[in-house]
Design brief:
By secondary structure, the chain is mainly alpha-helical. The protein has helices spanning 12-22, 28-39, 45-50, 87-106, 128-142, 149-163, 171-178, 183-189, 194-203; strands at residues 66-69, 81-84.
Length: 204
């Protein structure tokens, strides 16, 4: 993504406002998961559209502690990666899975772990384009100018970068979580903070 045309990073207030709005939608369980996969796991629209329950579950079929994103669900040949599950996202996924299992049983079908996590109201897989349009409508309805399906990804990567030193990590860890081939790409995603830069200089 070219510099100057990047999607805006979401503030914590914007994220909470969006979650509150989504809790009132017709497909609230699904919609909340879509947002959290974006802002908490940094997934692209294509990855959100492609993720299956098998990539999220342990051998017993329960929601595990990480997303085992496969190359086929990502961008390029090396886009696959393991992303630890954010606690809030894990709870939302467990709720959605319980709902999906019950819905399948109502129709007389067994739940299939190979099925997509995010589906349309008719139970069909949503395309990456559909996910991108979903975000566009969402942020448009909320009046968040300059925000798109990439805003959540930029938000996650920026937050990881800001907090990495607190947990003894490095930008290489952020690069791995983002699924970027080069560190330079990761750095372009990170929104700089003027106050943080001033504090860093004053510490010298």
């Amino acid at each position: 993504m070219a510099q100057g045309k990047q999607a805006k990073v979401l503030s914590e207030v914007q994220i909470r406002t969006t979650l509150q709005f989504l809790s009132t939608t017709r497909n609230s369980q699904r919609d909340i998961v879509i947002l959290l996969l974006s802002v908490k796991s940094g997934l692209r629209a294509k990855e959100i559209a492609s993720i299956t329950w098998a990539m999220l579950t342990d051998p017993e079929g329960n929601i595990g502690d990480a997303i085992a994103l496969q190359n086929i669900a990502s961008k390029g040949k090396n886009g696959g990666r393991t992303i630890p599950l954010n606690k809030e996202l894990k709870v939302a996924l467990e709720t959605l899975k319980d709902f999906a299992v019950a819905k399948r049983l109502e129709k007389g079908f067994l739940f299939d772990l190979a099925s997509n996590v995010i589906t349309s109201e008719r139970g069909e897989r949503m395309s990456a384009n559909s996910i991108a349009h979903w975000f566009k409508r969402l942020y448009g309805n909320l009046g968040f100018d300059g925000c798109s399906s990439h805003s959540g990804r930029r938000t996650a990567i920026t937050r990881w970068a800001k907090n990495t030193s607190k947990v003894g990590g490095s930008l290489k860890d952020v690069q791995d979580l983002a699924g970027h081939v080069s560190l330079a790409t990761t750095q372009r995603y990170i929104q700089s903070d003027s106050m943080a830069k001033r504090k860093l200089v004053d510490m010298g």
